[in-house]
Description:
The structure holds three protein chains of three kinds. By secondary structure, chain A is mainly α. Helix content of chain A is 60%, strand content 4%. Residues 181-232 and 239-243 of chain A have low confidence and may be disordered. The radius of gyration of chain B is 17 Å and the shape is elongated. Chain B has one domain (7-88): Helix Hairpins. By secondary structure, chain B is mainly alpha-helical. Chain C is an all-alpha fold. Mean pLDDT of chain C is 83; it is low at 114-127, 524-530 and 532-561. Chain C has helices at 7-22, 31-55, 82-105, 134-153, 157-175, 182-213, 224-230, 235-252, 261-264, 270-279, 284-291, 293-297, 300-323, 327-347, 351-378, 396-410, 416-429, 435-464, 482-497, 509-539, 544-559, 565-592, 597-603, 605-612, 617-663, 671-693, and strands spanning 59-69, 72-80. Chains in contact: A-B, A-C, B-C. The interface between A and B is large, with 101 and 76 residues.
Amino acid sequence: MPWDVIIFYMIGAVCVLSAAGVVVANNPVHSAIFLVLCFFNVAAIFVMLGAEFLAVAQIIVYTGAILVLVLFVLMLVDPDDLPEFHAARPVQRYVGLLLGLILLLEVGVAILDRSVVGRRAVADQQEFTQIVDLVGGNTQALGRTLYTQYLLPFEVISLVLTVGVIGAIVLALPERLGERLYRRRGTISLGHPRGTDLALPAGPVGESPIAGPTPGAEVVPGGYGRRLIMARDPNEQPVIGRR
Amino acid sequence: MGEIGVNHFLFLSAALFIIGMMGVLIRRNILIIFMCVELMVTAANMSLIAFGWELNSLQGQSFALFTIAVAAAEAAVGLAIIIALSRRVRTPVDVDEMRTLRD
Amino acid sequence: MADWLFLIPVLPLLAFGINFFFGRSFRYQAHWVAVPAVLASWALSVAAFLDIRENDEPLSQHLFTWIPSGDFRVDVNLYVDQLTAVMLLVVTTVGLLVHIFSIGYMTKVFDPNEAAHGHADHGAHGAEEKDPRYFLFFAYLPLFVFSMLMLVMADNYLLMFVFWEAVGLCSYLLIGFYYWRRSAANAAKKAFIVNRVGDLGFGLGVMWTFVAFGTLAFYGEDGVFAQAARGVASEGTLTGIALLLFTGAVGKSAQFPLHVWLPDAMEGPTPVSALIHAATMVTAGIYMVARSHVIFSQSTTAMWVVSAIGAFTAFMAATIAITQFDIKRVIAYSTLSQLGYMAFALGTGAWIAAIFHLMTHAFFKGLLFLGAGSVIHGMHHEQDIRNMGGLRKQMPVTFWTFLIASAANAGIIPLAGFWSKDEIIVGSWISEPFPNWGKFIAIVGLVSAFLTSLYMFRLVFLVFFTRPRYDASHLHPHESPAVMTIPLILLAIPSAVIGFVGFPPEDGPFHHFLEPVFSEQAEASQEADETASLYVVAGAQEDGLHQEEATEAEEHEEGGHHVSTRTTVTFGIISTAVALLGLFVAYLTYIAGRIDPVAVANRYQGLYQFLYNKWGWDELYNKIFVAPARWLAMVLWRVVDVGIIDGAVNGVAAGIGVISQRLRHVQTGLVANYALAIALGMVVMVGVYLAAFSDLFR
């Protein structure tokens, strides 16, 4: 048995097992660790496939960046909120498993049944390796391809990344703007038994702006906001109109 | 058993993809679902690279590179969404709590 | 050839357009549009008549090609031959006078929908209020004149059919002119629907004509008639076509099975009854059969049917007329009866006599209706003759003209009706196609003539003689204004003297004028006979003697188509005697009081009721056609419409509602469920892909 076959099966087994660990682990942090393991093995597979650059990129981007980010988020979330639950409702669980098995079967059949319809760029594997080596290796070859054949998509993907970053910032930061909006509104009354004509306590409130008459324009005795704003408790987000 | 062929890689890729899919379907923790999605994306990447390897071409790898970039962007936005959710939902990581689509 | 022919129909059409679209702005002056148009049309008709009389040549004008579709070509041609010229004169003359009469007649009729203010004392004030839809009346009337003129001027069956329908439409509109009256609306519907039955037959006949001859044009080398005369079609085909065409005539001319609409049509304004339902439209059927005489005369069966139906109608309507009390209904049944005369004249081959009677009848029956209208007008819309009486003093002009018309209708000697009716009876007595049957029909005609005289003078006596039976303290009958009496007088003149155009019976100027139209057929059939006789000769040479006899008989017929003077005089005397007998009986009954009509009616209760109920046709049709149709409509409504169609529509809506109620639970709002659905979709798609495209399962 050739070494590469043995190595492939070893790596593949670790890969699958660690992926399964991601799914079944109770603790999300364990899941993340399993995922890191899985991705390292995937990187190894990439190397076997001759994609050294992508193997490195996989490690840097996924394990280095994304998973670290995931772990950060895990830390941000209140540990009490971390679910004790393992899985979804039973129906969902069993149907999901069943669908997965069926799909596995189908894809397996498809793989066994497939035929190559693509045209080989270079007829021989040896020759291809030689060509790649000629330009200095996989990274150089890939760079040539990206900056010649795929220049426009490459630039577009940079735009996608920029937009993604901006979107992340906008999503993560808006409540400060909302807070400022609240402060400017001055006093509002909450249509709640406990609601008072007090300045809204600074706290985690939603950014949803509250439509209402401009303060001072019209003062209704008993608090003009009483008709407009109701909240069950001061911490909850005010809702416009009656429930 | 003999030579390592493309089918080996494809089977591995399929296995990873389906494990990811099952995770998406059966877990409720949004972070784990997120990680499973990443797993599925990676499995798809592996398929692409395997096809490129079979055809002696760099196109598969190029495509996989783009996918990684998109996955990175997706990760940024997705995690930002989780952060934003954490401010207004009691248990931000439970997807079953997010059901405003229903009303 | 005659480029101005188109003006004859177009002028009334123009009047219609102006009054219909702009009439609202000059409401009560609408007759200033309609009357001059019809007057001009009349003048042009006279010109056309004189032209034809002068040159003996048919006039025609090609307007445009309506349908150029391969072999099927329909031209809109105006064609005026002698027959059409006579019809033109009749239509425009009566039409013109009726238009003038209507100016005075179309006063406001009590409309229960409007505020019911006193109507009874209108007459006392002289100036009566006009009908609010006066202009509309003067739009429909020219429209009718236009349609009728086009009908008689059409040179092919399709064009004729179109205007055949158009006059039916006008009839419908005018019968239902007082649409707020339920009876009027029903009568209009009845007329329209009953006419549809006949028109279906006519339409089928036209189609069959096209199938048989490949054309619809009347005349010309390849015209229908030329081909029919050449014997292109078999006798069976011709019989079929003739019977179908006659079905149309039965509907339009209110012959026996389809006669029920005409008496009800009297719900329309009286001038309409005069113009449409007496003088012109109802004679369209007679005209059409006369026009198609080439086809009819080659089918003995068709001729027999025509004559039988005509004779039966003549007799039946006359018997009904005796018992009716509505002044207009009596005249309506009289119209039916006279149309029956015309029909059996056609059926027995007396074409010219039929047209002659058509013409005289148009004048005296138009006059009768207008006179009745004048009476109704003078009596403030009272129509029951039991509530009249002694009107000759209050309405002298109406009385005299009405008397002339009645006498003409009854066939009193020097008046128009005598000549034409007598000729019809003689014509059927000596009928060539049916020697014995013709004699029988002639006798039926004589009996009907007696009845005609009886009911006409019954009407005259009950309306104009005897004591007034109306409430004289409230109702003051008055003579109609000059605008109404002048048309009466103008119509009385032809009613009295027009008979003399056919004076030497069978040999008058009228006959000579019309001869070219009907002799073509004679020539053609002669040709056909010749070809036929060739075969006979070939087949039966030894039968020389027989052959000779046959030729002799033929010669006798051809040369001696004229009737011996003795026969004519004999029949003149007989019919006069019959008419006078009717007059005498009416006199005894209603003036001298020797016969008590009530006692007679009581004595023969069953017969009287039978006649009074118009032989029960309406009830019969109600049972046979109307009730099942209602039942079917009910079924269609209750079961098909409400049950199936509405049920399907509502069911789909309700079903969608129910399904939606169920389906909304699918939208759980749970992201996981959506993901599951996506996965399921993927599984299915891959499965379908494998099943459809994979080689694995091949």
